[in-house]
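Quick start: what a row looks like.
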Amino acid sequence: MNNPPNFTVANLFPVGADEALAVSSTAVSVVGTAWASTATHALLTNGANPVRATFDGSGTPTASEGHYLAAGWSAVVPVAVAKQAKFIRVSGDSDLHATPLRP
C-alpha cells in the first residue's frame, strides 16, 4: 500500500518567522535565516498563479521546466528541501509562503 505524502509527519507546530516570496520572472529561493534551529519541516503554499519549481538545489526552473505547482498548491517538506527549492512564475506573478515547523 502506498502511504500518502508526509504520512509519518504529525503534530507539527510553527516556529520562527513566516517568509513570503514574490515569484516573478527570476527564480527565487526560500532563505529561512530567521527560522529557529529547531525547525524540521516547512509548510510551503503557492499563491494566485501557477509556478514551476526545482527541489534538488542544483537545477533552476524556467517557465516551462520544473515541477508545475498550481495556484493554491501546498505541501509540508523537510527544511533542507525547502531551502534548496527554487521557484519561478509560469505566466503571471505569484507569491509563495514558507512557514517553519517543528514537532
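That is the whole record. Residues 55 and 85 are 4 Å apart (CA to CA). The mean pLDDT is 90.
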